[in-house]
Amino acid sequence: MTVESGNTKWVVACTTDDIDEEDVLRFDHEGASYALYRLAKGFHASDGWCTHEQAHLADGFVVNGEIECPLHQGRFDIVSGKPLSPPVCVKLKTWPVRVEGKNVLIGVPAPAEKDAA
């Protein structure tokens, strides 16, 4: 299911039952890869790939609101995307998330309107 509003396209990424608290799930959509997290205070999303090397964060560990990259153990704050420990130093892009019923939706950029020829 996909719903567009403004510059955001809301896409169902999973259901609330698909991801446990303090865990991460991979979600791929239209050529992009995301990491979806469930913390005690709700669901969050970020780009799926670590900003340091090509490692997918869904293969990492969630601890105390942080995601640890599986490759070099750099950590990011899940809510803000802020890098917290070396070797990561570039902020992780985060995405809006909302829950509708049992569906967890991620807000991704809506495609740009094509110019009329």
TrEMBL record:
Gene3D superfamilies: Rieske [2Fe-2S] iron-sulphur domain. Keywords: 2Fe-2S, Iron, Iron-sulfur, Metal-binding. It comes from the Bacteria. The keyword Cell membrane does not apply. GO terms for molecular function: 2 iron, 2 sulfur cluster binding; metal ion binding. InterPro entries: Rieske_2Fe-2S, Rieske_2Fe-2S_sf. Its cofactor is [2Fe-2S] cluster. Coiled coil: none annotated. SUPFAM superfamilies: ISP domain. Residues 11-106 form the Rieske domain. Belongs to the bacterial ring-hydroxylating dioxygenase ferredoxin component family. This is Naphthalene 1,2-dioxygenase system, ferredoxin component. It comes from Paraburkholderia saeva.
